[in-house]
TrEMBL record:
This is Metallo-beta-lactamase domain-containing protein. It catalyses: an S-(2-hydroxyacyl)glutathione + H2O = a 2-hydroxy carboxylate + glutathione + H(+). Belongs to the universal ribosomal protein uS12 family. Coiled coil: none annotated. GO terms for molecular function: hydroxyacylglutathione hydrolase activity; metal ion binding; structural constituent of ribosome. Residues 171-332 form the Metallo-beta-lactamase domain. It comes from the Eukaryota. Keywords: Hydrolase, Metal-binding, Ribonucleoprotein, Ribosomal protein, Zinc. Pfam families: HAGH_C, Lactamase_B, Ribosom_S12_S23. GO terms for biological process: methylglyoxal catabolic process to D-lactate via S-lactoyl-glutathione; translation. GO terms for cellular component: small ribosomal subunit.
Length: 419
């Protein structure tokens, strides 16, 4: 296209420049959203994050130093970045789980100096300037008491998460899964609606949904009452989430394997695990797994609607594949009796013996034994140890894990404490 001349050429030149300026790299970069998307801070100059771990980054040659840094997960978008901690000794003021404020440094967001690939630095720790801490003008605030909440670390998917355990009936557990950033919560298996609602009020969180693991009354029986309570006192409706088939009381939303439920800034992943019931699901959020009656501490649920192959899949191909630090929040306090059976199956398992003594003491004191972890279950739960020699010996030398599952479950169904 040649440049226009003559009448109205100025207007034509303006139009030409306007249509062609996107071909200029500098204009394209400054006006498109590509640069903002590539920037973990999303175009902001600063962002808050949670310290996951302290790390050392080897400086570029010819320097041979290790630059003290930390790995941070941003609260706004859950992206993980490396952030430099400036000044000697400042890393002593940064601990895992601290909330930090980071900012970019270096020309146009590039790495600076001899630190390869690091584009950000820590400027505040727990709301206090890192420079003020370094000069000893201020002290780092102490961590606050969270009122019995279990704060979950390591993985922060855009928010800090907490789990509140709510005992009910004779041995049931309901839970409040809380997004501490937005102060909303999901009630997990709230069979005693009034108790769960009261606890949410005490914690000053708003229940925004019900997550039900399965349709049995002692897990789903309080759903409708809780929905009515929230509508009566707060004039709002909440969804009731459950597994396939709409068998759950007051269910409004069905989920199945691989689905993700949004709770505030949290993402809750669903695993479909039919066996105890056909609609049973697990809810996994960060490092918390709500297992209902599929997995108990040192045990598993009865196969009311399934078979050994399905339970084997749920425990050993789903749960066992999760990170070992994943916390197990089950539906009942059956730990001591389950561990007695585990000790019967593997009498030489010292880990089982120690945990059995611990669980008996906890039960005597009226304390919950929840949560466990995937790592603990792999060491103590006979239903997750089907390939171990001691469990196979108990199963008359059977090697097939599915057959071992069936034999061990049948033995548990007929097990009498003290036998």
């Amino acid at each position: 296209m040649h440049k226009p001349s003559g009448i109205r050429c100025a207007r034509k030149l303006r139009v030409h420049r306007r249509t062609q300026r996107w071909a200029q790299k500098s204009y394209n970069k400054s006006h498109s959203v590509t640069a903002m998307k590539a920037n973990p801070l999303g175009g902001s100059s600063m962002a808050k994050g949670i310290v996951l771990e302290k790390i050392g980054i080897e400086a570029k040659q010819p320097n041979s130093a290790i630059r003290k840094s930390c790995r941070v997960q941003l609260i706004k978008n859950s992206k993980k970045i490396a952030a430099f901690v400036p000044r000697d000794g400042c890393l002593n003021y940064v601990d895992e789980n601290d909330e930090v404020l980071i900012s970019g440094f270096g020309r146009r967001g590039h790495a600076v100096g001899d630190i390869p690939g690091v584009r950000f630095k820590v400027v505040k720790v727990s709301g206090v300037s890192l420079l003020a801490l370094y000069k000893e003008k201020k002290e780092k605030p102490r961590s606050t008491d969270h009122g019995g909440l279990v704060l979950l670390r390591d993985v922060f998917a855009a928010a800090i998460m907490a789990v509140e355990l709510v005992p009910m009936l004779s041995d049931n557990y309901a839970y409040l899964l809380i997004d501490s950033t937005t102060r909303v919560a999901a009630a997990v298996d709230p069979v005693d609606a009034a108790k769960v609602y009261s606890r949410a009020k005490e914690l000053q969180v708003a229940i925004s949904m019900i997550l039900t693991t399965h349709s049995h009354w002692d897990h789903a029986g309080g759903n409708r009452e809780l929905v009515d309570l929230i509508y009566k006192h707060e004039n709002r409706q909440i969804p009731v989430v459950g597994g396939p088939g709409h068998a759950v009381e007051a269910q409004t939303q069905s989920v199945t394997d691989g689905d993700v439920v949004k709770l505030g800034d949290l993402n809750v992943k669903v695993y479909y695990t039919p066996c105890h019931t056909r609609d049973h699901v697990l809810y996994h959020c960060q490092d918390a797994l709500f297992t209902g009656d599929t997995l108990f501490i040192a045990g598993c649920g009865r196969f009311f609607s399934g078979n050994p192959a399905e339970m084997h899949h749920a425990l050993n191909e789903v749960v066992a594949k999760l990170p070992e630090e994943t916390k197990i929040y089950c539906g009942h306090e059956y730990t001591a009796s389950n561990l007695r059976f585990a000790a019967h199956v593997e009498p030489d398992n010292e880990v089982v013996q120690k945990k059995l003594a611990w669980s008996i003491e906890k039960t005597k004191n009226g304390d919950p034994t929840v949560p466990s972890t995937v790592k603990e279950e792999l060491a103590t739960n006979p239903f997750m140890r089907l390939t171990e020699g001691g469990v196979q010996k108990f199963a008359n030398g059977e090697k097939d894990p599915i057959k071992v599952m069936g034999i061990v479950r049948a033995a548990k169904d007929n097990f009498v404490i003290g036998k």
